[in-house]
């Protein structure tokens, strides 16, 4: 490969202008690849820059695409042409696509790398959809009143706010320290308008570029009389700017006999509750990246959390069996065999034979 700088005098002006071009005569493959415009296959070249000029020139002069004019096209484009567009377009990159070193070649030409990356991005977006290159990241903010044990997830960035916190400053500081595409805000069950003001302050302190998920905490123990008020407050959590997604307490949990979330929450443990929330978000086409349940106990609150499987194991339906000595605690001896003792009703009479009882009712013994 060789790169030359070619200088041209613009003779149309009285003042001489020097226009500098860069030319590349071959790619970076051990054996140079051969390129040609799709409609002029006879005009073959190893130079990516000459290929670009041929494509640009044939758009200005379509007659050069004729097979008989292939030599003229090659000769006319051997060196840069003043006034001709030197920016590669989609057709140029597609014609270069058989070369595996194109990504390296474009780095040597001014303006080519930008156009190459833009065209490649448009191709990926066309076939993979928008947002394919975006890596979702997440952090969690627990509003005042949410207990940490109600959120048994292992998250890299989690902030538990207190009533003493300067909410806007703390939230803004955390979001600046850990810039994430998603911010989960967990709120407690409440009927206070002042709490609604707090929740609004939190979501509005989050940068606009982040999507906010607002989710009620695990509702295992709450006053049913306040739920209607809480739902009304929850639905009124809004952002002044930016996107917000609500997981309402009234959303339906299908695998819990289509109960509403707040009713299903009463019969679910915290891990199962958050799995249900994750499924609801997925139905809204909202991801929860790096979702991992974690075991949190009093003994390990200050130690690194242990990750557990997100698949909940079904509890055994078998009743526990009694131990050998369990019966003595209840005031009766353990059952033995199938005889006619007190512990069995099978294989023998249910009534004692007074004639063989060791003691008579009058308290005297019939033993000799």
From TrEMBL:
Biased composition (Polar residues): 296-324
Source organism superkingdom: Eukaryota
Disordered: region residues: 296-368
Compositionally skewed regions (Basic residues) per UniProt: 343-359
Protein name according to UniProt: Uncharacterized protein
Source species: Caenorhabditis remanei (Caenorhabditis vulgaris)
């Amino acid at each position: 490969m060789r790169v030359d700088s070619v200088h041209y005098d613009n003779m149309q002006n009285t003042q001489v202008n020097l226009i500098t071009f860069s030319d590349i005569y071959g790619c970076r493959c051990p054996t140079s690849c051969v390129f040609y415009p799709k409609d002029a296959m006879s005009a073959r070249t190893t130079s990516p820059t000459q290929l670009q000029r041929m494509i640009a020139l044939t758009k200005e002069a379509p007659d050069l695409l004729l097979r008989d004019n292939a030599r003229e096209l090659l000769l006319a484009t051997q060196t840069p042409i003043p006034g001709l567009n030197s920016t590669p377009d989609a057709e140029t990159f597609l014609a270069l696509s058989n070369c595996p070193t194109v990504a390296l070649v474009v780095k040597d030409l001014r303006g080519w790398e930008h156009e190459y990356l833009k065209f490649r991005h448009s191709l990926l977006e066309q076939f993979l959809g928008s947002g394919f290159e975006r890596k979702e990241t997440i952090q969690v903010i627990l509003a005042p009143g949410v207990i940490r044990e109600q959120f048994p997830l292992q998250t890299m960035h989690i902030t538990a706010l207190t009533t003493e916190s300067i909410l806007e400053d703390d939230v803004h500081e955390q979001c600046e320290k850990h810039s994430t595409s998603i911010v989960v805000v967990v709120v407690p069950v409440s009927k206070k308008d002042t709490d609604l003001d707090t929740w609004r302050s939190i979501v509005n302190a989050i940068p606009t570029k982040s999507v906010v998920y607002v989710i009620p905490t695990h509702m295992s123990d709450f006053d049913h009389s306040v739920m209607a008020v809480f739902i009304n407050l929850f639905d009124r959590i809004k952002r002044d700017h930016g996107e917000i997604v609500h997981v309402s307490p009234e959303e339906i949990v299908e695998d819990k006999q289509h109960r509403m979330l707040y009713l299903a929450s009463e019969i679910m443990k915290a891990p199962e509750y958050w799995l249900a929330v994750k499924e609801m978000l997925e139905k809204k086409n909202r991801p929860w990246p790096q979702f991992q349940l974690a075991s949190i106990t009093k003994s390990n609150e200050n130690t690194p959390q242990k990750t557990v499987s997100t698949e909940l194991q079904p509890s055994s339906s078998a009743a526990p069996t009694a131990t050998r000595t369990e019966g003595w605690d209840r005031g009766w001896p353990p059952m033995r065999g199938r005889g006619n003792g007190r512990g069995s009703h099978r294989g023998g009479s249910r009534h004692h034979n007074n004639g063989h009882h060791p003691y008579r009712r009058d308290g005297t013994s019939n033993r000799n």
